[in-house]
Write a structure and sequence with these properties.
The structure is a single chain. The protein is an alpha+beta fold. The protein has one domain. It contains 6 helices and 9 strands, in the order βαββαβαβαβαβββα. The strands form 2 sheets. Strands 1-6-5-7-8-9-4 form a 7-stranded antiparallel beta sheet. A two-stranded antiparallel sheet has the order 2-3. α4 packs antiparallel against α5. The longest helix has 14 residues.
């Protein structure tokens, strides 16, 4: 896993035709402009379903292979949404996932991380934490026409560049609708 500065993450996205907007503290990707076909699924209530959804988010660029993570970026854009009691547990888990021993704000705040094809389990951990703690984050495959936004408002939004890419994503995510 490679941590990216805000500007490096923005450059990585721009290189894939994704427009980046907002200040680093209020980062947003203009997925509607670059990925005009969108749909949402509600965040599953049951924890095992969230774990399964984390896996599905990582497979959106992989086609039909369930184990073929294509690499990509996880960009945490907003956290610290809930109470301190909830957030401190999330910060600690995230820091440990990143190999740090103490929870530090900069380890969680607006972090973009680039994962290679052999780091599927590591990014799955990051995505799972975002789903469990309902933090805002983007999951952007290194290849493919679909990306995802995890929202603290209880949904995951998928955006695709083509209607066929959207149709295959909807088919894959049918159980979550």
């Amino acid at each position: 896993m490679q941590r990216l500065s805000d500007s490096a993450a923005a450059e990585w996205c721009t290189g894939r035709g994704i427009q980046v907007g907002g200040s680093p503290a209020e980062r947003s990707l203009d997925i509607a402009e670059s990925h005009p076909y969108t749909f949402r699924v509600r965040m599953p209530v049951a924890a095992p379903r969230r774990l399964a959804l984390a896996h599905e988010l990582l497979m959106i660029g992989a086609g039909h292979e369930d184990t073929a993570f294509v690499g990509g970026m996880f960009w945490l854009t907003d956290w610290d949404i809930w109470t301190e009691t909830v957030e401190r547990a999330g910060r600690l888990l995230r820091c440990r996932l990143l190999g740090e021993h103490q929870a530090q704000t900069d380890a969680v705040d607006s972090q973009a991380e680039l994962y290679s094809t052999d780091e599927g389990i590591e990014i799955q951990g990051a995505v799972t934490l975002a789903l469990i703690f309902e933090w805002d984050a983007y999951v952007i495959p290194a290849v493919g026409d679909v990306l995802a936004f995890i929202s603290h408002d209880g949904y995951v939004e998928f955006a695709a560049t083509t209607d066929s890419a959207l149709a295959s994503t909807i088919q894959r995510l049918g159980p979550y609708q």
